[in-house]
C-alpha cells in the first residue's frame, strides 16, 4: 500500500506527470482510431508524430537532466571534467542533424531516416542503463559502454531530429493556413515530453537508481519507435525517399540504402572515439567553424549588393549564438551541480528543476507569439536583431538576479549557505523568456534572408553557432570546476555567474543599440517571396512555440 502521507514533492510531481502522459495517450489513441481522415481539423498523422516526438523528448531530456550528476556521482569525474563531457556531448548532438537532414533530403527520405535514428536512440538510451561496478571511470571498463551509448544517441538524434518536423509540414498543402497551428501542437508535444521525462525518468534515476532512470528513458524511446512504425499509414505516403529506385542500386555489391545505414554505424564508431577526447571536439568545432565562416563569406561576394548585405546581417546574428547558448546550457551542466549543493530545494530532487524551462515554454510560448503579432499590428514590433539582443539581456539578467539572491538571501552557516529556491525559478523564467526572444526569431531570420541556393548553408551555420555555444557552456563549466580538489566551490560559481551575467547584459545592450544598422543590412523592404511558393521563405515552425535547446529542428523551408 502506498504511503501517500510520506510522499515528497518529487513523488507527487512524478505522479502528476504520469497522469498527464496518460491523459494525452488516451486522447491520442482516440484521435488516431477515428474513422475519418482528419480529427479536430488536422490529419491524424499529426497526432502520431506528436506522440513519437513526445516520447523521443521524454527520453532525451530525462537522460540530459541526469547526465552531469551521473558523471560526478557515479563515474566520479571531477566537476570540470563532467562539464566538459556534457558540453562536448550536447554540441555534437547539434551538429549531426545537419548531416542527417542532408542524407534524408538526398537519399533516404525523412521517414526512413527517422526510423533509423529512433533505432539508434533506443539502443543508446538502453545502453545508458549499464552502470558497471561503481568503482569510477578510472577502473571500470563498463565506461566504454557509456561512451557507446552517448555515440548512439548523438548519431540517432542527427537522423531523427533533423527530419521528423519536416514530415509535419508535408502533411499539409504548401498554402494551408493550418500549418502554424499544426506546429504549435507539435512543439507542445516536444515540451510536454521534455517536462515529463525530467519529472519521471530523471526523478527515478536520481532518487532510486541510475539504471532505472536511464532504462525508463530507453523505454520511452522504444514506445516512440513503436508508435512511429505502427502509424506509418497515417503519413499518407509523405517522407518517402526522393528516388526509391536509387536506394536499391548496388554500391560495392551492397544496396545503397544499407550502405547509408552502414555509414550511420560508422559515424557511431567515430563519435565513440571522439567523445572521449573532449578538448579535440572543441578544436574541431573552432577550426571547422572558421572554415565554414570563410566559405560563407566567399559565397557572399558572388551575390548582388543587397543579398550580400543580408549575409553579413546573418553572420552577425550567428555570432550571437555561442554567447547565448553558452550561458543557457549552464542549466544542464554547472548549474545542475550548483542546485544540488547550494540551493535550499525543500526536499525537491535536483533534476526536477530541469523541467521548469519546458513548462515555462508551454505556458509562455503562445503569449510571445501573440505579443509579436500584436506589436506588429501596432507597427511597433522590434526588429529581429533587437529581439535577439533583448533575449541576450534577459539571459544575462537571469544570472545577475540569481547571484544577487544568493548573496543577499541565503541562509545557513558559513561554508554551507543555501540560496532560496525562488531565485532558481526566477533564473529559469528569465532564461526562458530570453530563449523565446532569440531562438525561434533566429531560425526564422536565417531562412527568410537567405537566397535559395544558400538557405541550407546558412541554416547549417546557424546550427553550428548553436553547437559552439553548447561546447562553450561545457568549457566555462570546466573552468568553474577548477576549485578545491577539482570541484566547483560556491564562491567560484557565483563569481563566474555574476561575470557571465554582466557580460551578457552588456553585449545584449550593444546588440540592441546597433540593431537599426543590422536591420538596414537586411533590406526588408525589398524582400520578395520566391515565384513558386508564397511561403517558401519561412522556416518550419518559425511562428510557433520553441523547444528548450531546439537542437535538430530541421531548417528546411516549406518547399520540402
UniProtKB/TrEMBL annotation:
It is found in: Cell membrane. Keywords: Cell membrane, Membrane, Peptide transport, Protein transport, Transmembrane, Transmembrane helix, Transport. It is a multi-pass membrane protein. It holds the Pfam family PTR2. Residues 15-519 form the Major facilitator superfamily (MFS) profile domain. It comes from the Bacteria. Gene3D superfamilies: MFS general substrate transporter like domains. SUPFAM superfamilies: MFS general substrate transporter. Coiled coil: none annotated. Residues 537-560 are annotated as: Disordered. The chain crosses the membrane at residues 12-33, 45-63, 83-104, 113-130, 145-172, 184-204, 210-235, 256-275, 281-298, 310-328, 359-376, 388-406, 418-443, 455-476, 496-518. The keyword Iron does not apply. PANTHER family: PROTON-DEPENDENT OLIGOPEPTIDE FAMILY TRANSPORT PROTEIN, RESISTANCE PROTEIN MDTM, PUTATIVE-RELATED-RELATED. This is Oligopeptide:H+ symporter. It comes from Parerythrobacter lacustris.
